[in-house]
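Example (one chain per record):
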Amino acid sequence: MLASHVLASLILAPLALAHYTLDYPASRGFVDENEVNFCGGFTQPSSSRTPFPLSGNAPVQWDSHHAIGTVGIYISTAANPTNWSDFSTTMAKSWFTGPTGAACTNIDMSTLNMNLTNGSLVTIQMVANGGDGNLYQCADLILLSDYTVPSNETCASDVALAANATATATPSLGQSASAKASSTSGATAATRAVAAASSSAAAANSGTGLMVGIPSAGAWVGAGLLIVAAGVVGL
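Predicted structure:
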């Protein structure tokens, strides 16, 4: 019983902490464990793009469920961006430090010098790194010269303008084939760890019933730590 609780805690702890939701503009979708992937694992643009002002400050709002740390927002003018080469080196919002909980920042598309016009279709990708790897969310927009953001979606307290907002480090980007392979290798290592723990537990069970708890717990704790490590490597 102790072993199973320890293992569950070790597996679930990073999952409970490592995510954020992009609330406005609406993200393509949210699946917690897929946020380590490009656009949060959603590879197709939204069927209904969010209207967004072509000029003037407009908000990007999110809610972080852990210490979000370094945040940056990239922009793509590709109709269907599928990898980082589709995103401009010009950032919609340069790197800054974001807080835990609900937060927002403003973007003025007209300042990006990207020849954006009325009706331009763009995708923004928010990248956040709280120390446990990059997390990604995308939102698909249509830029309109006469659009005004709803009054309940404004950003009066832009966290990127806070005194401590300047990021000191820029996370490396991208979910390349090698990164995915690393993730797969991590999962394989985790599987091996569970198998080893099961074997150790079985060996302990072959002894007296009174001794099962201690060796089984130790084996499962070790497996849990390897699983967590594999998960971090995968990120």
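Caption: The chain is about 30% helix and 25% strand.
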